[in-house]
Amino acid sequence: MTILYSELADVYHEMYRSIFDYEKEFRFYDELLKKYDRNSVLEIGCGSGNLAPYFLKNNYTYLGLDLFDEMLDLARKNHPDATFIRSDMRDLHLEQTFGAVIVTGRSLCYITSNRGIMMALQSIHKTLEAGGILIFDSFDANKTIPNLKTSFIQDVDVGDTKYKRVSRNALNMECGWTWDWEADYHIEKKGEEKRVVRDKTVLRAFTEDEMTLFLRLNGFDVLEVIKEDVLVFAAKAVAK
Fold this sequence. Notes:
Structural class: alpha/beta
Order of helices and strands: HHEHEHEEHEHEEEEHEE
Helix content: 25-40%
Number of helices: 7
CATH topology of the largest domain: Rossmann fold
CATH architecture of the largest domain: 3-Layer(aba) Sandwich
CATH superfamily of the largest domain: Vaccinia Virus protein VP39
Distance between the termini: 32 Å
């Protein structure tokens, strides 16, 4: 299991605000949610809450959910007006239902077993209102697997701290289109000793047909698939 979202939560928060354009990401989801006339949103994989203020500012009913307490501590500190809870998407027991569930940051790709994907989709289905919409992104196996970079480096400077992530990837194909991702985080903060922390995890990519079948087996009709650098699925919850 990765430590990026627990022991390295602060590193994640600082690095990813530079790597990703969260305002642009919100506009993408906002367009889809307006298209399907949905204004209550559960965000699964909310992390440190970088999307939350955009949803609140645009009058959505919003709840952020994550698996890691360290991420939620940051989210609550940085966005006290939003509500965040801890839970596992494979076993949701919420008192309310939502018009839409969005799973952000390719969070489903950390679930590598078929059984785990089935559990997550079944659990999300119960959390949606009748006819509710599920939106999520995933790595596209047809792009990711043939073009998997064996190594790459990302440098981010935030204030007086320099972050360098040196990543290494290797296919394992243990269950579906999976690979091992190992990363060394080099952290240099002014006035402190440089430290290096190693993280490793397994990720899974999906083909469009593969994920479409998972959705259909678990009570969803696929409304559209947006093919960009990743696959983005929009699906409607129907009676099973």
